[in-house]
Amino acid sequence: MLVSGLVAVAVTGALCIAYGVFVERHWFRLVRYRLDILPVGGPEQLTLLHLSDLHFRRHDAKKAGFLASLPQADVTVVTGDFLAEPDAVEATVAAMRPARGRLASWFVLGSNDLYVARPVNPLRYFRRRRTRRRAQRGPWPELVAQLVDDGWEHLSNLQHGVELDGLPVELVGLHDAHIFRADLRVLPRRTPERFGLALMHSPDTTPEAAACGYRLTLAGHTHGGQVRMPFVGALVTNSHLPRRIVSGLVRMGDTVVHISPGLGTSKYAPFRFMCRPEATLLELHSTPQRDAARTSSNTRR
Predict the structure, then answer these.
(1) Helix axes 89-96, 140-149, angle to 10 degrees
(2) Which residues constitute the domain of residue 88?
(3) pLDDT digits over 128-138, tens only?
């Protein structure tokens, strides 16, 4: 009886691993949310496509095909970690081309863009204190140059004003706080009468963005946990935020935060469980009600 039980557990575990490697990590979906947060007097609707943590390899046809199938948005934002390997720059730029926004295409970088990924013991993520490791420099200058040449705007640690179909926007992008690259000196609002939009790789700086009065903040990095369990949720998030709020929509005062589960995984951990890879379409609408923000029933495919 004991042997039969152990065999059953081993078989179940093997099936779960096979599912996570061969099925779920390629089971991409598009999730839509409606947010009534645009100020009155501007456009009645803007669509924003949020992508993150793509972790592209040289040969990533399924992911590239999914991006090509997405509806064109007014604005596309990528919150870092384009690359899974340094030789994937050209493939990444080509795959991102169909996902560009009608009005604007913005991005910030993540640690996997700056440094070449290395194998990591998964148990290391459960430690509260981690030792720093020497890392190999990644091809991020080439990535940035090619994306910019293709119509994208790089916003790591930059703030400026833009216009989107008549909507004045104060836009800020932060570098990766997880590796201490975020420069919070660019975060304070200069023109608070504008619609505030902040993007960053790690969600660890979302509370600061909320405190500065940005209306919408976008982040990635956590992969939604990548591995989630029933009744428990994400086992590890690699973030200082509480585990229960590191994926999806979160309210921080008057700020709406969206943390993307991402579309990829590290090449050394090609596994997702109960955490499908996701692109998110945020449908922003105007509302006459002051400070109203409503999330409709989201649709998935």
Answers:
(1) 30
(2) 2-286
(3) 555 555 678 88
